[in-house]
Amino acid sequence: MAVIVVADDDTDMAEFVSYSFEVAGHTVHTALDGATALELARSHRPDVVVLDHTMPGLTGVQVAEALRDDPATAGVAVIMVSGHPPDLAQGLVDRLVTKPMGPRELVKVIRDVLASRTPRDPEGRT
User: Fold this and answer.
1) What is the full per-residue pLDDT of the chain (126 aa) written as tens digits?
2) Exposed, middle or buried, 115 (CB in 10 Å: 0-12/13-18/19+)?
3) Hey, which of 30, 34, 74, 106 has its CA 20 to 30 A from 42?
4) How far apart are CA 50 and CA 123, in angstroms?
5) Per the domain annotation, does 17 fall within a domain?
6) Whose CA is closest to 49, among 126, 101, 60, 1?
7) CATH assignment of the domain containing 37
8) Domain of 30?
9) Cβ neighbours of residue 8 under 8 Å, at least 6 residues apart?
């Protein structure tokens, strides 16, 4: 299964999303702010990063930009989950998901995004 980083400053939402992925068999690392999400993505080399847009410190868009700018994380799938997805996210993320959403929808989005991507080699290149 996949390694996933989930970032949302709403603790209940972060736990809900993380639990949904864990039940589906994925390994999940959770962050409550953008800087921690970026740190987790760099240290755990996830298959997918799921970002809320509005977070303290770095926004989801800023995290997505940093991931795309770093050759070590540029190939990571990025999904943004937001009540109002920003236009700036277009082109930075693989998928935008509008809140509210159910756990089945989230798991399906992860499955679809992973299935549509070329597997990365150990060096992180696609």
Assistant:
1) 899 999 999 999 899 889 999 999 999 999 999 999 999 999 999 999 999 988 988 999 999 999 999 999 999 999 998 877 667 777 889 998 888 888 888 889 999 998 887 554 444 434
2) exposed
3) 106
4) 22
5) yes
6) 60
7) 3.40.50.2300
8) 1-45
9) 14, 17, 32, 51, 52, 55, 81
Helix axes 60-69, 34-44, angle to 10 degrees: 30
CA distance 76 to 124: 8
Residue 103 preceded by cis peptide, ω within 30: no
* Residue 76 · residue 44 · CB < 8 Å: no
3-state secondary structure of 9: coil
Global pTM reads 0.88
Q: How many domains does the chain have?
A: 1
Token pair recorded at residue 50: 């799921």
Q: What are the residues facing 6 on neighbouring strands? A: 30, 50
Span between the terminal Cα atoms of the chain, in Å: 18
106 within some domain: no
| Residue 95 resides in a domain | no
Residue 9 lies in a domain: yes
Structure tokens, 56:
């303290």
